[in-house]
Structures are given as structure tokens and as C-alpha cells.
């Protein structure tokens, strides 16, 4: 039998403490998500409604098929910056007329939907997901263009948005623009470069230069409607393919456009899906609040994979890394999960072999992070930890099957790389609310700086300031602690969202379904030189 047993004591004090700590983190996360949902605040939301307009997420909801999920991506973008949480744009994956699509929607309640640097990063990430997974891209447009005070950070890299639209189209991936309001200056190229364009009567305004700019540049007097209104573009310029009488009509027409795309998935959806044998709610009590305390990742695997069925690979070798085969919402996956944090030589070699096998079988890989990195020390350096760690990182880097990553606990140092962190292009990466990621743990990093400073003082023959050292360590620990938190990292788009552990199976299932829209094939040999 390959069904995982469980030894989780849901009545014990450890489980209760872990659950309480996780619920506290989830309450903090809910508060931050509420900021994104509130957009520009009550005043601007109310003003938008008085104009008879739908909010960004309301537009998305009406676009989607009824009772289907929407996987919102990067909802905490711009967290901790001077800009509103959410970065004035909503992005995600949803089903429209049975077709999985990437959807982006400007939030006009935040500075008129103007794009700031984090808006750009978030939109580019959505385009990347659409291109990699061959998902049609629907843009719900209402934006005043670039947030001008930040233009120096937007103008030059912002051209990639239009490049992406043309590349999507060239790759045969449909692009649809629905224009609800302003789409001016550079923003006019979003409908201009989309395959299908829908504009709302007396609302859409699409022009390279508005009436004030035209007057300054040419002396010509023109109003919004004659210069760039929906009816003009439908009757005269030909930019609008469909003319909508109101927002709901525009969304109805967008659904009809998608229904006629004839866009097909590369792989059929699974016919039979078996739920895990154990309650997903129990995921709240597995990971300790103190990430230095180890936990068994099999307890997590048992609550997210189909039937809790897991064929473990090399269970007696490299036991700090759990590897094995499973199904998730009917899709085959290979799982790599950290068991005791540290990666040794055996774990690294085991991972490299497992990744090669997954590529031979064309099986996607799921990385469940809880690692402090590769082991250090004289014995391990002499034993070849560098070349063995490089072996694992090489395998991850050159693997061609889709990768998914979930940060459950710690994800420090090169272990973050070996477990397919953001820099290694996983198709999707999510974090749990208690996860942390940095060069190393706060205490270790502060201690290293203290040792270096102490050695420097000794080399100069100077007395060492112990009080100053204590203050330095405290300051560094606080800084690294705050910078390693998932909301900080999610704000910088180093993940695709911070999720409730109980939603892990659902989120991964949605991602796997999206991944299987595009064909993929594992590498059969080209891993580069493995240092043995």
C-alpha cells in the first residue's frame, strides 16, 4: 500500500499551538487582502459607482462562467511601498465560456487606474503566465496611463507590455481588450495590439493624445468623442471590432468572442479525481510557529495529493528530502519536500536523479519548501557539498517539465534555489502565511556580521564595543525578519500570492489545469556537466 499514514495528533498541545499561530497569521493576511479589495478607498469607490460603473473585480466576476473559481495572482503587489496594496490592477486565471484565460483588470478607483512601477511588474507577470501556458489574455481596460511622477520607472520597461501582446498573438494565443474608460497615450496600444477589441459607448476613450495635448501640439480643437470615442472607433477608425451599449453588454460580447476562439487545451482534463483521505483543515496545525522546529512534510503531502497516495522514491537515502510520485486533481506530479531543513550531499544527489526521472516521464514537479540551505562545515565541504548542491541546482535549472513551488516554512540560502525559487522560473510559486525566505535566518545573519566586526576590531588592535554589537545584532535581526516575511516578498512579486494552507490543493489543481493547456516535454539529456 502506498497510502500515507498519519501520526498527527489533532488533540495534542503542539497541534493546538501550531494551529493558533497559523490562524493569527491568516488574520493578518486577511487584513492586508482587505486593503487590496478596498481599492482607492471608500471615497473613490463611491464616486466610481455614482458614475454607473462596475468595480474591477465585479467586471471580472461577470466575465467568468458562473460558479467557477478565479485564481487571483499577486493581490499584495506593492505591499510596503508608497503605492496602494494591489498595485491598481487585478490579475488572475479564470474560466470564460469553458476556456481558461489570464484576466487583467485596471482598478480605476486607485488614481484613475494609473500604472505605477508595481502595476507594470504585475501586468508583465500575468503576460508571462499567459505566454508560457498558452492561455488567452483578456484585458479589462480603464486606465489613465502611467502615473507620471513615477514615469522614469515605467516608460522604458513599460514597452514590454505591448511587445508581449504582439508575441502572444504571434504565438497563436488570443488577446482580447475590453475598454470601459480611458485608454490613453501608451495605453491606447493595448487595444491597438489586441486581436479583438470591444469598446463601451460614451465611456471608452482611446487616443494617443487627449484634447489638451492635441491643442498644444497642433492647435486643433477636438472633443473626447470625436477624437477617441467608442462610436468613432467603431464607425470611422475601425479600431473597435465590437460596440457595446454598456459595461454588461461589453462583458457579454467578450464572452461571445472567447466562445468563438476555438482555443483548445493540449491535454484532456482528468476524468477521475480522488480527494485526500485526511481533512485539509488539519494543514493549519502541522507547521510550527517557530520554523526552527522540524515537521514531517508527509503530513502535508497526505492532505493535498489524490487519495493521500504517495509512492516514495529512495525513502531510506537522503532522508532530509522526501521525494515521490503522486496525483493531484488527477494530474501526475513528482514531489520534492524538505523534511529536516538541511540539504546534505545525499539529498542533493537524490533530488538530481529524481528530477531526471520526472523529465524522462514528462511529469510536472512540485517543490514544498522548508529548508535552511545546504549543509556547511569542514566535513561537508570535504565531502563535496558544493558540487553536490550544484548538481541539484543544475538539474532544477535545466529541467523542462513544469515546476510548481510552495513555501511552507523556511526557504533560506541556496536551498531556496535548489528547491526552485522564483529565479528558477517555476510556472507558479505560492507561500503560506508563516513562511520566510532570505539569505539565511535572522539570528545567523546577525551573528555572522557580529563575528566579522569582532575580527576586524581585533585585527586593528582596537577594543570591541559590546553594547554597540548587541544593538547591531538586534537591528539586523529585526530588519532581516521583516524582509523575509511572505507579505514583504509577495509585495515585490517574488511569489504569486500568499495562500491559506487549506487552499493549497485547490490552488495547485487550478495551476496544473492551466499548465496543461500548453504542450511540454521533459529534457532527455541536456543537463550540462554534472560534477560527480
TrEMBL record:
CoA carboxyltransferase N-terminal domain mapped to chain residues: 22-273
InterPro entries, alphabetized: AcCoA_carboxyl_beta, ClpP/crotonase-like_dom_sf, COA_CT_C, COA_CT_N, MCCB/AccD1-like
Spans traversing the lipid bilayer: none
Parts forming coiled coils: none
One GO MF term attached to the UniProt entry: ligase activity
A matching Pfam family: Carboxyl_trans
Classification via Gene3D superfamilies: 2-enoyl-CoA Hydratase, Chain A, domain 1
Taxonomy, superkingdom: Bacteria
Record SUPFAM superfamilies: ClpP/crotonase (SSF52096)
Domain CoA carboxyltransferase C-terminal: 279-514
Protein name: Acetyl-CoA carboxylase carboxyltransferase subunit
Organism from which the protein derives: Streptomyces ruber
Amino acid at each position: 500500500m502506498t497510502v500515507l499514514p498519519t501520526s498527527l495528533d489533532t488533540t495534542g498541545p503542539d497541534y493546538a499551538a501550531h494551529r493558533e499561530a497559523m490562524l493569527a497569521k491568516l488574520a493578518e493576511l486577511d487584513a492586508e487582502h482587505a486593503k487590496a479589495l478596498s481599492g482607492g478607498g471608500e471615497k473613490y469607490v463611491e464616486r466610481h459607482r455614482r458614475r454607473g460603473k462596475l468595480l474591477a473585480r465585479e467586471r471580472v466576476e461577470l466575465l467568468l462562467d458562473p460558479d467557477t473559481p478565479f485564481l487571483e495572482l499577486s493581490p499584495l503587489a506593492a505591499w510596503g511601498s508608497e503605492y496602494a496594496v494591489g498595485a491598481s490592477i487585478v490579475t488572475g486565471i479564470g474560466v470564460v465560456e469553458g476556456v481558461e484565460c489570464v484576466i487583467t483588470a485596471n482598478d480605476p478607483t486607485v488614481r484613475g487606474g494609473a500604472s505605477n512601477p508595481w502595476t507594470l511588474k504585475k501586468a508583465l507577470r500575468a503576460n508571462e503566465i499567459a505566454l508560457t501556458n498558452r492561455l488567452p489574455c483578456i484585458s479589462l481596460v480603464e486606465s489613465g496611463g502611467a502615473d507620471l511622477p513615477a514615469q522614469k520607472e515605467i516608460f522604458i520597461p513599460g514597452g514590454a507590455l505591448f511587445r508581449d501582446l504582439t508575441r502572444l498573438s504571434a504565438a497563436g494565443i488570443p488577446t482580447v481588450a475590453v475598454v470601459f474608460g480611458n485608454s490613453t497615450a501608451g495605453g491606447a496600444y493595448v487595444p491597438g495590439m489586441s486581436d479583438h477589441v470591444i469598446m463601451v459607448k460614451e465611456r471608452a476613450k482611446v487616443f494617443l493624445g487627449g484634447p489638451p495635448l492635441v491643442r498644444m501640439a497642433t492647435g486643433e480643437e477636438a472633443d473626447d468623442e470625436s477624437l477617441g470615442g467608442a462610436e468613432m472607433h467603431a464607425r470611422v477608425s475601425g479600431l473597435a471590432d465590437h460596440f457595446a451599449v454598456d459595461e454588461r453588454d461589453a462583458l457579454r460580447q467578450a464572452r461571445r468572442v472567447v466562445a468563438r476562439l476555438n482555443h483548445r487545451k493540449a491535454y484532456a482534463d482528468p476524468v477521475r479525481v480522488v480527494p485526500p483521505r485526511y481533512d485539509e483543515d488539519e494543514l493549519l496545525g502541522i507547521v510550527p510557529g517557530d520554523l526552527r522546529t522540524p515537521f514531517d512534510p508527509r503530513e502535508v503531502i497526505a492532505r493535498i495529493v489524490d487519495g493521500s497516495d504517495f509512492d516514495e522514491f529512495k525513502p531510506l537515502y537522503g532522508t532530509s528530502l522526501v521525494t515521490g510520485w503522486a496525483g493531484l486533481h488527477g494530474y501526475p506530479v513528482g514531489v520534492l519536500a524538505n523534511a529536516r531543513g538541511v540539504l546534505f550531499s545525499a539529498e542533493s544527489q537524490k533530488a538530481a536523479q529524481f528530477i531526471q526521472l520526472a523529465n524522462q516521464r514528462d511529469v510536472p514537479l512540485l517543490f514544498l519548501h522548508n529548508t535552511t540551505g545546504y549543509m556547511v562545515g569542514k566535513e561537508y565541504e570535504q565531502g563535496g557539498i558544493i558540487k553536490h548542491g550544484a548538481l541539484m541546482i543544475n538539474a532544477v535549472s535545466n529541467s523542462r517539465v513544469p515546476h510548481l513551488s510552495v513555501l511552507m516554512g523556511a526557504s533560506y540560502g541556496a536551498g531556496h534555489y535548489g528547491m526552485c525559487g522564483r529565479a528558477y522560473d517555476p510556472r507558479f510559486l505560492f507561500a503560506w502565511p508563516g513562511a520566510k525566505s532570505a539569505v539565511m535566518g535572522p539570528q545567523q545573519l546577525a551573528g555572522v556580521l557580529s563575528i566579522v566586526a569582532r575580527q576586524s576590531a581585533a585585527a586593528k588592535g582596537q577594543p570591541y564595543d559590546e553594547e554597540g554589537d548587541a544593538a547591531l545584532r538586534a537591528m539586523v535581526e529585526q530588519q532581516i525578519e521583516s524582509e523575509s516575511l511572505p507579505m514583504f516578498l509577495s509585495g515585490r512579486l517574488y511569489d504569486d500570492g500568499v495562500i491559506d494552507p487549506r487552499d493549497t490543493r485547490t490552488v495547485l489543481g487550478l495551476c496544473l489545469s492551466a499548465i496543461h493547456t500548453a504542450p511540454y516535454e521533459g529534457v532527455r539529456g541536456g543537463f550540462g556537466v554534472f560534477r560527480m
